[in-house]
Amino acid sequence: MSQFPSAEWLELYQSKENLLNAYSNFNEYFSEKELYNRPLHHINMGTVNFPTGEIIVCDPLTYLDIESEPYFTKVPQGVFPVDTVVVEVEEDHFRYAATRIKFSDKKAVKHIEALLGYEDLTELGEDEYFGFTVESGLATIVDVATRDQFCDFVNRWDYENDEDKNLYDDFFAAEFKRSFEKHPQFQREGGDWINMKIPNTDADLPMIQTGFGDGTYPVYFGYDENNEVCEIVMQYIDLELAFG
Q: Pfam families under this entry (predicted)?
């Protein structure tokens, strides 16, 4: 269910907006070929379908369940491209730095952290963020309708398989391997990303390795000159902090 922030929370949110602004320049992330003396590469990971516009970003293997909640800000409904920027940490050693979903061709003039609508903003400080927690080294971005279809799939899979089987080892590992075989550039042999249809559905399920593995990562909505949401960015590596 969508969150409906209280008037008091929204007032505090608006007063704290300067602390929720992204420090990084994501327009550079997705347009430049090099930043901070590190080569950047760009992967088109296909598309993702947002039928309701209520969006969830989380670790898909740990936190994508029926209780996972969308951000209070809705995005346009439709099918949109998934693009990831890769930083070459050293020769032939690559890390995924950020993933962007563009909703329009408008340029973002600011990026503000995506929130659920009930975070404690009272003591938010400079250079702090809420983010999403990763425990399996993976991130996903899905619509709430996709969340429901994923949960149905997991329940069916669990029911059809014995207790000794593991969802990643016995299902998703093969999907990651196929992704590597089809798109080997910027992936390790076992695969670093997938974008698949949930079985027996039309729901898109991207899963992407997070820059340095487990941790907490911020997500930002990009707003255009008309203050409309034009993109969402999942940041795995702060390039300036890491390499600047």
A: DUF4241
| 196 inside domain | yes
Domain extent at residue 19: 7-243
Cβ contacts of 76 within 8 Å, gap of 6 or more: 50, 53, 103, 104, 229
Sign of the alpha-carbon dihedral angle for 92, 96, 102, 106: negative
Q: Is the entire prediction scored with pTM above 0.90?
A: yes
Average pLDDT by stretches of 10, the chain with 244 residues: 80 94 96 96 97 98 96 97 96 94 97 96 92 97 98 93 87 97 95 97 97 94 98 97 92
Q: Is residue 2 part of a domain?
A: no
Task: Calculate ∠ Cα 151-222-112, nearest 5°.
Answer: 90
* Cα 75 to Cα 1: distance, rounded to the nearest angstrom: 15
